[in-house]
Amino acid sequence: IVGDSRAGDRVEWCLTRVELDPQRPIAVIDQIPMLPTSESSINYMEETTFTNNAVETAESTATTASDLIGEAALALTERTRPVEWLPVFIPVTQQQMEDQEGIEAYVNGRLQYMLRARLDSQALAGNGTTPNLLGTKSVPSIQTQALGSDSVPDAVYKLFDLIRTGGFTEPSVIFFHPTDWQPVRLAQPGDRLNIWGPPMDAG
After folding, report:
1. CB-based burial, 103-139: b 16+ in 10 Å, e otherwise
2. Nearest CA among 193, 178, 124, 180 for reference residue 153
3. Is 70:60 a contact under the CB 8 Å cutoff?
4. Each residue of 19-38: pLDDT tens digit?
5. In this predicted model, what pLDDT tens digit does every residue of 145-175 receive, in sequence order?
6. Fewer CB within 10 Å, N or C, the chain?
7. Alpha-carbon distance 185 to 15, whole Å?
């Protein structure tokens, strides 16, 4: 504060730093490719039938291919997911925007974070019922692996194998809450050496 308003001096203020309210970082949507659209829904084709009748066959005197070669089958089913609306706003006066350089960038940045944070949680846990998005955890027939009596690393590895043998793809990313990951990261056998390496390593 500069000056004394009681003496008629001009009072000025200068915003040199904003300490942001601590919020969790965006993690999930940074791993998901996103494309813009102007449509109200997204149509895509899902391969719902895959019949592979390729088989080793001895030389034959058959006169037509159908007598000699196994017939395969493919079927595609059209699927549709609605495009949902995810809005947010903060009321700000024109004078507030003009009073301080950078305030517009600050407000816009926080609004963008709010949108991305909500989208991040929806991408993981949305139930798919409009206006919610269909999150990964709500995808039908998604692979799951109970912890049971396994250690966390063992259960995760078993889940990876389910993805490999059921989804025929290699797992590429895993999300852990920090408090769930800490005992895994710091696990030690009897010699007191961290299984995953010392804490200063990336792990």
Report:
1. eeeeeeebeebeeebebbbbbbebeeeeeebbbeebe
2. 180
3. no
4. 899 999 999 999 998 889 99
5. 999 999 999 999 999 999 999 889 999 999 9
6. N
7. 41
